[in-house]
Records
---
Amino acid sequence: MREKSFRVGYAVLVMAAVVIVLAGIKAAAVIVVPFLLAFFLAVILSPFFLWLKAKKVNDLFALLIVVSLLIAIITILFVLVGNSVQDFTNNVPAYEAKLRTELLTLLEHLQRWGIEVPKEDILNLFNMQSVMQYIATTLKSLGSLVTKSFMIILTVVFMLMEISQFGNKLAQTNTNSLEKFIDISNSIKRYLLLKFFISAATGIVITIGLKLFDIHYAVLWGLIALMLNFIPTIGSIIAGVPAVLMAMVQYDISTAVGVAVLYIVVNVVIGSILDPRIMGKGLGLSTLIVFLSLIFWGWLLGPIGMLLSVPLTIMIKIALSTQPNTQWIAVMLGSGENGIVNDKK
């Protein structure tokens, strides 16, 4: 009886500690979000930095090259996307009016074909003003990260400096968990690096496709496709919404359908065929877990938490898979595929 009470008390204590930690993370989201972004950037840039070091490039010079590359990319994105975000936000009222007109036209066509539809109810259900305002607000929140770019870059610099000394520190340690820690680090690095290149390919293909359709802000929608590609299935659907709406505003419903088909084809080819082959088995999440992680990390860290939801959950899954007593949790988080999460490739 006493042992049972102890277990219950321990479980309650653990849950209370988790709640306190989550409350602390949410309160410190302003600090945590830039740190997480810096961490992901450092992981993605670290292979290039280590490659330069392997080529006998001086540490300081190698760091300068990598940071210069990062600053150049951020500057280019700011120039290409910054004006687009501002222009899109200013034109939201005009877009909302055009979308409402297009929807009314579609409903009138349905009535001519003998399909009776409640116009007002549908117009209230699909509140175009709310949709466009939400897109604009989200873009602004993402754009606000540019103001924190200096702190993010500075954090990346220190992380890369630490990476250069990390191997020496590991060599000086002698613990039983060292091999597992190295495996976890390599799996996380491999996942983030491969996922970034797959997402970049998705963004480039979407941008080129939208350019062929002559859709406004094609680079912006391509960048959104790149970021949301980190969220399987759901992300590609969300990424396609603003581009489809923009096609409807610019042209007509048939063009919007064409843009939707573009997103579907890209999602099927890259998301359903290439992605599993490149990433390998065992790194997938079930659709339910993807959706729940989207809600949870979005609540905890805001819009950026939604973008990072799947990478963060994958990192947790990789860590859980290395311990025998928590492997079952990693299996429950997975998509049901056979394979080892802790891939040493």
---
Amino acid sequence: MRIGVVVNPIAGMGGRVGLKGTDGKVAEARRRGAEPRAPERARRALTNLLKRAPDTEVLVWDDPMGASLVREVGFDPDVLGAPVGDETDAKDTLAAVQAFVDADADLVLFVGGDGTAADVAEALGGSDVPMLGVPAGVKVYSSVFAVSPEDAAVIATTFERTEAREVMDIDEDEYRSGSVHPELRAVAQVPVAEDLQSSKQTSGGTVEALAAGVADDIRTGAGVTYILGPGSTVGAVKAELDIEGSPLGVDVYRDGEVLVRDATTAEILEHLGEKNVIVVTPIGGQGFVFGRGNPQLSPEVIRKCDVSVVASRSKLETIPVLRVDTDDPELDEELRGWTKVRVGRVERRMMKVE
């Protein structure tokens, strides 16, 4: 099997530092101390790929788009080209994928977010080569991604057929201002597998009673630091608390006061107290509690907090299980199992975390 591997080295860099994406914000992300996320995600996928299929022929684009990573895990790749400038962009992704197609790749395995997915799909237009994403971006709405880097390797080495799936993307400037309008960018062939994530669904159903109950508990939690995650469900909780929170960011709240609005990972850690609770809602249709849309909630933050998952009943109807993908496989394993999800003022439902 011949697999073309392309890594977007800046994908996801803006997440931990509160930028909600990296499009046009690379310099600002670096100024805030952002660390690359994609290389380690790629390494996890490639390590599992080598373990499962060591004879795979790997096609790759030169650094920083994957060549060294592929060699580090033990493959001897065929390097087909290199980025044009010091900073990679969409043109480099398009060139790499077109080269993979010309070299008769059986699959393009890309590491990035929705923007990268759109670029890969554009380059594959007119070919029958399927694509599969290793999720590394801040916003991962498309249904062309594996659930985790390890799952991507499993899918790449076991799929027998493909199906058409949606590539979605959003305007990051609108996203930063609190508006989410996913736009269909392409329809691409993707391996058929259970461990693919669904497209994000935005409808969550009635949340008024749920939000009121959560807000009541928060008001009585004297001295407790609450880390309020993004999304409309937790946004309803913020509205019940009568605070102006960030609709798509993470806010830190304690004793009736917003300590930080739209906090970065560093700011969250700085304001944690003796007792801390993360209030988070899963992404509709996908079920991700951590790892999609809230990278500010890093493994270090999560380990210092209790976790309260909240969701409307109608949202849970679209989610068979909850999922976590924190960039820390050990933490992911600790979080797996059964957990209580608050679905009403006092009602709770048991859900499995995978």
